[in-house]
Amino acid sequence: MTYAELVQRLQDWWESSETTLVAEIDTFIEHAEKRIYRSVDLNTARSEDETIVITDSQATVTIPTDVIVLQSVQLIISNARTPLLQKDRSFLDLYTGDRTTTGTPKYYAWYDDTTLLLAPTPNTAAAAGTLAITYTTRPAQLSGAQTTTWLSLNAPDVLFYACMLELLTFQKAEADTIADYTAKYQQSLQGLVLEENLRNRTDEYRERDIKMGEQ
Asked: Could you report the per-residue pLDDT of 112-164, keeping only the tens digit for each?
């Protein structure tokens, strides 16, 4: 499904091309995509092995601004990878006692929205390496400029019903109509969850133990 097809389908199903409604469709899509991405941990929304430079005697590092959920942090020195453990800032301060104490980092904590605090503070040897982070991001939104996305091509039913829920809310539709489309959305979302679980957790040589999460 393309952007143009989705826009037309929304108008056709609601049987309206009213100017105000059409002007809000991009907002419907934005909210619908966020609803889906917050419900399912999709591989398409993961960024793998983004590298960050470490500075000697610098306790903080800046991460990309598109990080939504930080999945893992690894220290790479001479191609050897060591996972860092996430703790809170108070633990890091108690662990080192002094942020001027340097060594090979073992822990990290959120310092602010775009900064991580490392402990111990990296020394010269650690600064010879890099940090590799894996995180959840927000893929580009379906729009007139981005005419297809992973969701529009691989889960068009989920995207459409999520958009219809936004449209129905905007139009102050009857409660039973919203309930009907909510059920359709939940059913299609469960199918997407199942597919993603199968994609992530099983192959022909692994036990198929799939658990459906409540949405």
From this structure: 999 999 999 999 988 888 999 999 999 999 999 999 999 999 999 999 999 99
State the residue for tokens 């340097």.
102
For residues 61 and 51, the answer to whether their CB atoms sit within 8 Å is: no
Spatial contact of 60 and 111, defined as CB atoms under 8 Å apart: yes
Report cis status (omega within 30 of 0) of the bond before 120. yes
Residue position matching structure tokens 């108008």: 11
Rounded to an integer, what distance in angstroms lies between the CA atom of residue 75 and that of residue 70? 15
Q: What is the domain partition of the chain in residue ranges?
A: 3-43+139-201, 55-128
Q: Which pTM does this prediction carry?
A: 0.82
Strand order of the β-sheet with 60-62 is 60-62, 115-119, 107-112, 85-86
- pLDDT tens-place string over residues 161-210: 999 999 999 999 999 999 999 999 999 999 999 888 877 665 555 555 54
Give the DSSP letter of residue 43.
G
Q: Which tokens belong to 18?
A: 């009213």
- List C-alpha distances in Å: 76 to 3, 21, 50, 80, 129: 41, 51, 12, 5, 5
Phi-psi region at 172: left, alpha or beta (left = phi > 0; alpha = psi -120 to 50) = left
Distance between alpha carbon 96 and the CA centroid of its chain, in Å?
32
Give the distance between the most distant pair of CA atoms in the chain: 67
